Amino acid sequence: MAANLSVYGYVGLTQGAAHLIEAFGSDALRTTYMARMYRGEWTGTMALTEPQAGSSLADITTTATPAGDHHLLRGAKIFISAADHDLTDNIVHMTLARIAGAPAGMKVCRCSACPGGASRVTTSSTTTSRSPASSTRSAGASAEHAPRVRRAR
Ligand SMILES: Cc1cc2nc3c(=O)[nH]c(=O)nc-3n(C[C@H](O)[C@H](O)[C@H](O)COP(=O)(O)OP(=O)(O)OC[C@H]3O[C@@H](n4cnc5c(N)ncnc54)[C@H](O)[C@@H]3O)c2cc1C
């Protein structure tokens, strides 16, 4: 890291994403993601920005549709630092989304832990972390939605 300061970005983003899961995730999410991320086996990102929503995050249009113990995400994110690399087998994207059908504003947004590889498709199965704004339901990671491990190219 001393030789390449920008490498710290990967560590810092991973730490932040893991901490989000630690603070708001279910036990299952913590077990599946958090420890591996803190150990550096997997890295993490913060996927907030969209083509039409940068500073104005209240304008995001990515939706999270409840589907059993997880949510289905649909939308587009841009400018996501450390979102695609071969340093680790998996990249966990903490993805900001609007609960499907909810009115405008930030109070109806939630953050989902999106297993690596899912960012390559339009609609993806995700496991979710509990949102501070929507804490009535916390989802756990099921076997069906266990992280998809990316293959090194
Ligand atoms: C190197 C880099 C890495 C990034 N990594 C990530 C990442 O990991 N995850 C992620 O989600 N995003 C990431 N981003 C995106 C970043 O968060 C956005 O670029 C930022 O939020 C600004 O959004 P924007 O580019 O759409 O600019 P805009 O929001 O369109 O802003 C354009 C200009 O308008 C000004 N402006 C905006 N709103 C107001 C206002 N209300 N009043 C006055 N002036 C205003 C701004 O200061 C700016 O000068 C990254 C960007 C860069 C450059």
Q: Bound small molecules, which ones?
A: flavin-adenine dinucleotide
Number of helices: 2
Strand-pairing-aware structural class = alpha/beta
SSE pattern, N- to C-terminal: HHEEEEEE
CATH topology: Butyryl-CoA Dehydrogenase, subunit A, domain 2
Give the CATH H-level superfamily.
Butyryl-CoA Dehydrogenase, subunit A, domain 2
Radius of gyration based on Cα positions: 15 Å
Give the CA-based shape: globular
For the biggest sheet, the summary is:
5 strands, mixed, barrel
Highest CATH level, the class:
Mainly Beta
What does this protein look like?
With 153 residues, the protein is an alpha/beta fold. The protein has a single domain (7-145), classed as Beta Barrel (Butyryl-CoA Dehydrogenase, subunit A, domain 2), CATH 2.40.110. The chain has two helices and six strands. It has a five-stranded mixed beta barrel with strand order 2-3-6-5-4. β2 and β3 (70-74) form a beta hairpin. It is globular, with a radius of gyration of 15 Å. Residues 118-153 have low confidence and may be disordered. Flavin-adenine dinucleotide binds next to β1.
In short:
This protein has helices at residues 7-24, 27-39, and strands at 43-47, 63-67, 70-74, 91-99, 109-114, 123-128. Helices cover 20% and strands 24% of the residues. It has one domain (7-145): Butyryl-CoA Dehydrogenase, subunit A, domain 2 (Beta Barrel).
Helices, strands, pairings?
Blueprint: H1 7-24, H2 27-39, E1 43-47, E2 63-67, E3 70-74, E4 91-99, E5 109-114, E6 123-128
Helix pairs in contact: 1-2
This protein binds flavin-adenine dinucleotide (FAD).
